[in-house]
Amino acid sequence: MIATLGATNPFFVNLDQIFVLLRNWLVGFLPVVLRPAAGVLLGVVAIVCVFPGLFALTTVFERKGLGRIQNRIGPNRVGPYGLLQPVADGIKSLTKEDIVPLRANAVVHFLAPLVLVVTVFMGFAVLPMGRNMVLVDMDAGLLFFFAMGAATELSVFMAGWSSRNKYSLLGAMRAVAQMISYEVVLLLSSVAVVMITGSLSLPKIVAAQNQYTGVFPHWYIFTPWGLAGFLMYAIAATAETNRSPFDLPEGESELVAGYHTEYSGFKFALFFLGEYLAMFSISGLGTTLFLGGWSAPFSFLSWVPSWFWFFGKVMLSIFVFIWMRGTLPRLRQDQLMNFAWKFVLPFTLLNLLVTALWRFMGEGWQRWVVCSVILIAAYVVMGRVEMRSEHFGRRSYRYAE
Amino acid sequence: MNAVFYILAALTLAGGLATVLLKQLVHCALAVTVAFAGLALLFLQLDAQFAGFAQILVYIGAVAILIVFAILLTRGSDLPKDGVFSKTWFLGLVIAAGVFAVLGWAVLASVSAVPQQNAVPSVTVHDIGIALVGRYVLPLEIVALLLTAATIGAVIVAMHEKERPR
Prior knowledge:
heterodimer, A: mainly alpha, two-stranded antiparallel sheet, 14 helices, 2 strands, B: mainly alpha, Four Helix Bundle (Hemerythrin (Met), subunit A), 6 helices
């Protein structure tokens, strides 16, 4: 399979498979009985080390990026260019006092951050992070991912309820309502991909996209239904991870910090970690479903290691997340719900029909025209109808004198 | 029947018992989630991936959340003053034992009715999908219609009453 992709040079093949080879080499020291278990253990260790490391880098990246957007410098005191800031933050959160409110429900309060981090970590098990680099190749991998995602909602509720704080509880209720609403969209936009691929296994979904016409790849985002599905997926993913502009559950002007108001020290750090890990995993899934996973953007670039493309695409999505946080204002609760149920959900359902049409129209240019026209027409009509009652005037600009 | 099965069975039973014995309603809801998770793991142990993940997705992701919301939106999560045990506990015990006996009889009868298969049937998600939209398409559509009707009904009940023009 590797040989057919133009990467015939043994050096690049080895570089592509370097982590797999490294694992096999390390496991080779053990007796044969222990090898499968040790291989899985090494994979788990790699995931548990790599993603928190990325999280540490992302916090600096985010603060620097937000600083740049807001015309300031950002962290620049710890280490060169402030790069050691996460180390300082980590030490701070480890040494801080762990405060639990007197009336809090201690057991549930303690369990909530653990449940969050564990379930979020589980999602990484099925993501193919490179060629042959998937921890568990499950037949129902996509379903596993969403099942784990559903379990995080419960941890958010546990945190909010057990704190015995009205801001925590309100934040948790908002978060759970929002996550349930957008999870429907997240699932339905992924179903389009499953309909075309005919499999719930994520490595198979990547393999289906890892083909080229000329130099251009067959990524699903380059089809009308894929583009629409990806946009809906991106909106739902932003809401699902409580990122701006959907960060109402922790809107600090209204709710102090939402469901983790009463958490301090390392438990707060775990919530922070869980939130960023959820961002990574949901970006990783989006990459896998619509952006071709670990496949290269042009056929002549397929000698570049596959893991580089996967992590590159994930970091690009993270950059977009940060960019949106720096530029968009927060929505209101009613706007959030109306948007989910009156625009995003109907459009996603329509996209499913268009996907079926695409599947059964067969090869040819006709399906491109028909599917694009349906989606664009629906977008315009739905936008017009829903905006009719709003009466927006012309956009006006005001400048400082 | 191995150690994993006994651990999972104990977990599920403990979750179920905690659900009926705990005093705080929200704790009960969380305990029933543990029981759901134990059931899902039992499915997975039997190599039924689809059923296991669907169990987690539907029961933990939706049913447990629904229960929790219902508790919070109705009575509040305050402790009841006069204990959580019903006065008619004996009747409840009899009914529960009856239901258990019927289920147990059905399971035991099925063992002799359907002879034990040696080979484990391999049911993939693909097979389930084919069966759902092939042989069982009519029940699927009926359930879908029913759920849609229920959703529309719920929306109509919850909708603001508009003032009628006279």
